[in-house]
Amino acid sequence: MKIIDLLKADAINLNVKLASKNDAIDRLVSLHDAVGNLTDKNAYKEAILLREQQGTTAIGEGIAVPHAKSDSVKVPGLAAVTVDGGVDYGAPDNKPSDIIFMIAAPMDGDLHLEILSRLMVMLMEPEFCESLRNAKTTEEFLSIIDKKENEKYAQPEEKEAEKTNNAKYRILAVTACPTGIAHTYMAAEALEKAGEKMGYPLKAETNGSGGAKNVLTAKEIEECDGIIIAADKNVEMARFSGKPVVKTSVSNGINKPEELIQRIVDGKASIYNADGEQVKKSSDDDLEKESFGHKVYKHLMNGVSHMLPFVVGGGVLIALGFLIDTFLGNATLPDGSANGSFGFTSFAASVPFWIGKVAFGFMLPILAGYISQSIADRPGLLPGMIGGMIAAQGYTFNSLYENQNLVGDGTAVSGFLGALFAGFAAGLIVNLLKKVFAFLPKAMDGIKPVFLYPLFGTFLVGALMCLINPIIGALNTGLSNGLSSLGETSQILLSIVLAAMMATDMGGPFNKAAYVFGTAAIADGNTWIMAAVMIGGMVPPIAIALSTTFAKKKWSAEERKNGPVNYLMGLCFITEGAIPYAASDPIRVIPSCMAGSAVAGALTAVFHVTCPAPHGGIFTFAVCDHPLLYIVALAAGSLVGGLVLTALKKNKTEA
Q1: Residue 250's domain is classified under what CATH number?
Q2: First CA to last CA across the chain, in angstroms?
Q3: Which residues of 353-389 are buried (b: 16+ CB within 10 A; e: fewer)?
Q4: Within the chain, what is the greatest distance between any pair of CA atoms?
Q5: Which residue has the higher pLDDT, 228 or 341?
Q6: Is residue 127 part of a domain?
Q7: Taking 90 as the threshold, does the pLDDT of residue 72 lie above it?
Q8: Does residue 446 have a pLDDT over 90?
Q9: How many domains are contained in the chain?
Q10: Which among 245, 321, 496, 584 is most buried, taking Cβ atoms within 10 Å?
Q11: Does 567 map to a domain?
Q12: Residue 179 pLDDT more than 50?
């Protein structure tokens, strides 16, 4: 495949007049749509605008490369315009942009990305760009691109081998942008060309959407004078321990390559220590600082993104078990009482149900493990996962001593809040251990990350969680006692409180306390309590799904993609479907879900709905009193939650 395979003649306009950046975007999106690259023109434009909100895609020197990955892209492709007089695209050099390429990339499939990277590299050459500006026809425009590509990439394997074998690099670089389509490769090319011009051979590793390319070897790292990290996302840093490192944004890699190289040459770079950040900084070191809030968010999202497949896959399988048992009439026992094994009563239901439960069992350890890994690199993975497992099982020192079969204390399960705590605690503990063991000789460097950090980190995190879990267990007991006294005062108020608690931490102590109270009340004949509890747990996923469906600007592409699954999970009373969204933005998501659940809970009390089943969601409504009114309460609560959430959320900025 070549560049001209992705750029059709009908997707090129030459020497056009455009009044503004928005006009340029509209023109390029229309070109993509006209040649059949898109399934949804408006959705793709929205993705382009979201990328521009993060920062202009204008490179400078008259070049702009707007780009986006989107589900609305049917076929990967390019569109291009040359603009008579240029247009203000917000370039860092304040020059108008007169050559604009727009990249349309699908969410999956990276075969085309290497081809697109070639164009980005070619655009760094002024002579090539000038030829494009002077092209009179689309055929000439395409011919210029094809000729340059053939010259530069005629024998890529041989050229790369020659480059690798003959050069001894004084300076190395790693470039990466969140999308991994354009800026990653342009920064690499800019740095390599600047290094060649300044007389300092430079090799750049690109961490693009298609994976790492031109990967730095251990020998190259050992022999180099320093490394430039021009990246807007996390890259593997442990390999650079003990070397001078300059960390900056990918845009600086494009626009300030000489300045970055000079800092390495002048010895003004910090020495990176994998055991604890930079350990030497010069007085004029101006490394860009990352805010504390952004660091927390980045670590959190690393855990959430890895956890999401377990939530979605496990949740859908559990829902399938409920659905099969519903069709087989197993929601209640022959005497009309609730079936405690609903969802896995029949063989056909049991298979998907229990496989889904196994997947769900990994959810909290994965969340905690990858939060910890984001903070402390690979040594943090094991301690974090063990901490998450202990949080999920409710292990305490007493339960570990008395139960040799590793049975946790049911009153000490700390849920996803405990897993969040475990993840951050594990990462910080491992980083502390790196400093503690820094005195060991360099010969021990190989054994520290595979033995010392996991060993001591796992023990310390496990012990900490065994201390924390009983505290949360005591909190659960206090909550249950408070609920019992509240029930005598007001049925409506109790329903509001219980339903809101189900949405507070979604599997944590508040949720667990409310659910235990509801199931215990069934035995006493107070089935109206379970009605409020169940609907309170059903609302959060549905409210989130509604917002991701009808307020797309508020959510990232991945969040929108996974949102519809929450309709099914909410209907099945699987509140955990809301956890990834709550974990990534708890300040807005949790209060919104609580508001929606509280409304739904209040309506169940007003409508005198009862529910004798302890689980199953909408599939148990048939055995409830006033099932139609129960559905009305669910719809009203979900709508309120979705509206509040949409009002509180800000438009999402994504690369």
Answers
A1: 3.40.50.2300
A2: 26
A3: bebbeebbebbbbbbbbbbbbbbbbebbbbbbbbbbb
A4: 87
A5: 228
A6: yes
A7: no
A8: no
A9: 2
A10: 321
A11: no
A12: yes
177 is catalytic: yes
Asked whether the beta carbons of 68 and 44 are under 8 A apart, the reply is yes
Q: Does an H or E element contain 480, and which?
A: helix 453-487
Gap between the Cα atoms of 38 and 427, Å rounded: 42
| Mean pLDDT value of segment 616-626 | 76
| pLDDT at residue 61 tops 50 | yes
H or E, element range at 350: helix 347-361
**b/e burial code for range 88-103 (CB count within 10 A of at least 16 → b):** ebebbeeeebbbbbbb
Residue 655 pLDDT greater than 60, yes or no? no
Give the integer Cα–Cα distance in Å for 601 and 74.
Answer: 43
Which residue, 152, 172, 200, sits at the end of a domain? Answer: 152
* Predicted confidence band of residue 412 (pLDDT cuts 50, 70, 90): confident
pLDDT digits (tens, 9 = 90+) for 293-325: 667 766 876 787 677 677 667 766 776 787 788
CATH number, position 68? 3.40.930.10
What is the rounded distance in angstroms from the CA atom of residue 109 to the CA atom of residue 106?
A: 7
Residue 645 CA to residue 214 CA, distance in Å, equals: 44
219 and 111 assigned to the same domain: no
Q: What is the pLDDT of residue 275?
A: 56
Nearest one of 43, 449, 542 to 236, comparing CA atoms: 449
Which parts of 488-585 fold into alpha helices (H)?
491-502, 509-523, 527-550, 557-562, 565-571, 579-584
Please count the other Cβ atoms lying within 10 Å of the Cβ belonging to residue 650.
9
**Strand, helix or coil at 97?**
strand
What mean pLDDT is predicted for residues 6-30? 92
Which single residue is written with the structure tokens 């503690």?
Answer: 436
Is residue 484 in a domain? Answer: no
Q: Which residue has the higher pLDDT, 399 or 403?
A: 399
Tell me, yes or no, whether 503 lies in a domain.
no
Note whether 165 and 181 are same-domain residues: yes
User: Are 222 and 132 in the same domain?
Assistant: no
* Residue given tokens 């070549």 in the structure block: 2
pLDDT in tens, 468-480: 888 876 665 565 5
Q: Would you give the distance in Å from CA 477 to the centre of its chain?
A: 35
List Cβ neighbours of 472 (8 Å cut-off, separation of 6 or more).
Answer: 412, 413, 414, 417, 418, 509
Q: How many whole angstroms separate alpha carbon 505 and alpha carbon 533? A: 14
| pLDDT, average across residues 490-512 | 80
What is the average per-residue pLDDT within 600-627?
A: 81
Catalytic residue among 32, 112, 177, 611: 177
Q: Is 353 left (phi over 0), alpha (psi -120 to 50) or beta?
A: alpha
Q: Is 103 found in the same domain as 139?
A: yes
* Phi/psi of residue 166, nearest 5 degrees: -95, -20
Give the range among 127-141, 478-492, 548-562 with minimum mean pLDDT. 478-492
Are 106 and 178 contained in the same domain?
no
Residue 268 structural domain? 156-289
Shared domain check, 10 and 56: yes
Domain boundary, last residue among 257, 289, 321: 289
pLDDT at 89 over 80: yes
What's the average model confidence in pLDDT over 386-406?
82
Q: Give the tokens for residue 75.
A: 């076929």
Same domain membership, residue 255 and residue 133 = no
Q: In this predicted structure, what is the pLDDT of residue 96? A: 92
pLDDT at 70: 80
Identify whether residues 162 and 106 lie together within a single domain.
no
The whole-angstrom separation of Cα 142 and Cα 130 is 14
What count of residues does the chain have? 655
Alpha carbons within 13 angstroms on the beta-carbon side of residue 110 total 12
| Contact of 540 with 512, CB cutoff 8 Å | no
